[in-house]
Amino acid sequence: MxxxxxxxxxxxxxxxxxxxxxxxxxxYEHYRHKTYSYxxxxxxxxxxxxxxxxxxxxxxxxxxxxxxRVENFNAYLFTVLKHRALDxxxxxAKEDTIIRELTQTADAANRETEDNLNYRELQKKLHNAIxxxxxxxxxxxxxxxxxxxxxxxxxATLNIAPTTVNKHMTRALSFLRKSLxxxxxxxxxxxx
Length: 192
Prior knowledge:
The chain is mostly helical. It has helices at 9-17, 21-43, 46-62, 73-112, 117-131, 135-146, 151-158, 162-190. Helix 1 (9-17) packs across helix 2.
């Protein structure tokens, strides 16, 4: 078993590449705070920042043998973090677009075919998806989307931290995005 030196990055990278988890833990601890802060500043969303952070360090460990070819780990790490964060933002933007399109399509279908049985079925599925949310997520979602409250107002109303509101809203939107994909496909068939 190797003794882990005081922070000598090249030696720690070499040991990590050889599978030494203690060396990897030292690198992780050295970069943990500044990398998380960097990601959060980019994405402005706690759960996405946590996902990117964990994903990048997991990938580094899984592909540790390639660390022997890295000359400037700091530059390498922040480049990987930036790309993963931007990928995450693109994914979220795409998911938000789907929900926006769903809402617009549903509104258009309602105006054009108010008596249409398919539209009522669509609305029923949407409300069922919302009802399946855990209570706190459903409450945060309703206060935000139906009552139009901002994150700080919701936090004050529910007497919880704004970060907790953000967490509940992120999870609710993620669940609804997945649940409503089929409904989006149905909506596109309703419109000419």
